[in-house]
Structure of Lactate utilization protein A:
Amino acid sequence: MAPQVGLFIPCYVDQLYPQVGIASLKILEHFGIDVEYPESQTCCGQPMANTGCTNEVVPLAKRFLEIFKSYDAVVCPSGSCVSMVKHHYDEYFSENKEYDELKAKTYELCDYLTSVLEIKTLAGRFPHKVGLHQSCHGLRELRLASSSELVKEPFGPARELLESIEGLEVTQLQRADECCGFGGTFAVAEEAVSCMMGEDRVHDHEQAGTEVLTALDMSCLMHLDGIIRRQKKPIRVMHISEIFAECL
């Protein structure tokens, strides 16, 4: 019997980038997963938590638990939202066994593909130079890739999946894991700094020859895509799930 997965789609993806949710569904179903999208799901509460409105997060955290606790796993195409659930819900649940179980079975999409389904290669062809942006939550909270400041054997399952696709070349950046400057509400509170950081990232991808810019978080890509479009840069932006789905 196929495992039953609850597909958690971040609110900004639902409202602005529904194709990312659809691509995630196609990928999971391609690998034989029984996927459900609970229509009663809401925001995970990360924007409120980031701005100090912790009381407003409580009902959202409890609702998330109630909606997703019965699934074999919860999968989400966003490292930041997964990080919110796995690392920042603890203060809202005191010694709650159901939450501990939920936390252990909540995964970012690429993490689920590689660590649970143990997928190492992807079929299909994508003849482009692809630049992979390592978003901060996925990198330093979920540890989905190695950080440049750590002296250890490098790893990166998402990069390995990309490199397994025929015709795809992953570009080499000068600063492989630098923040894009989005940071959710940081982009509003510190607009100038946020834009300068984003421009630095775009420039790094330009010098590397990136044709398609991808990441595990559409929020980071939304910020970078805004800079790319306004400056009329010749770089296409795609969430990693869209690349995978195009290759199926």
